[in-house]
Amino acid sequence: MRIWDLHCHFPPAGITAEQKVENLIRAADRMNVERLCFYMGFPWSQNPSPENMRAQNDQVLSVLPKWSDRLLGFVYLNPNYPADSMAELERCVAHGPMVGVKLWVAKHCNAPELDALVRRAHELKAVIFQHTWYKVMDNYPGESTPADLVELSKRNPDIKIICGHTGGDWERGIRTIAPVKQLFSDLAGSDPVAGYTEMGVRELGADRIIYGSDVGGRSFASQQAKVFGADISEEAKKKIFAENLIGLLAPILKAKGIKF
User: Fold this and answer.
1) Which residue from 141, 143, 160, 243 has the highest number of Cβ atoms inside 10 Å of its Cβ?
2) Coil, strand, or helix at residue 220?
3) Interval 9-45: pLDDT, tens
4) What is the pLDDT of residues 161-210, one digit of tens each?
5) CB of 38 within 8 A of CB of 9?
6) CATH of domain 4-256
7) HSE (side-chain half, CA atoms, 13 Å) at 84
């Protein structure tokens, strides 16, 4: 079964970017992970300055050539700096090797400043990934929920967007995004509890669910267990582990001449 991992970061092990990726690839090999979507540098910044945003993207760009057959880079953007984020989108995707966009917790994604970014990303055929979370305590000041993403998506109904973590509280997250057909569920990050993937397949359909690990915050094994251990068909598992993500990435991979 092919496995493409939507949600990967530099792991703690290693000092340099190259050392960290070497450790990550060794773990991926043990778990049969074929491709890794890779974003954000180290140390993380929740609200990076334009300079820090570029530096984190440079860390990812530095490792893509050596592992071009394994890593797919997503550009990390901060919508608090719309002009700088647009420039990074052009530098890293339009004129660089990256194939997607990563949006984290700097600004709620229902803000109008995101419209131009997601529209341009869509023009470039880039896959768009938005972190979301429902916390028992308060979210970070700019941290989006699946409900925020629904607002963004309804303003841009022709654009497919991935709901990162499906909000963490996956029962609420799945129900929130279910009516919005252009939103996809990311399985990464939460505990591998029974029923998560089954509910996703039941409420969204297997075509809208994508496997991710959130490595190095989580392990490949624990996150793969959500799919391997789910009471769903083998066909659904194949879609979740690779086919759905490949489908989203195919237009930009073809445009950039990346074999898959």
Assistant:
1) 143
2) helix
3) 999 999 999 999 999 999 999 999 999 999 999 999 9
4) 999 999 999 999 999 999 999 999 999 998 899 999 999 999 999 999 99
5) yes
6) 3.20.20.140
7) 15
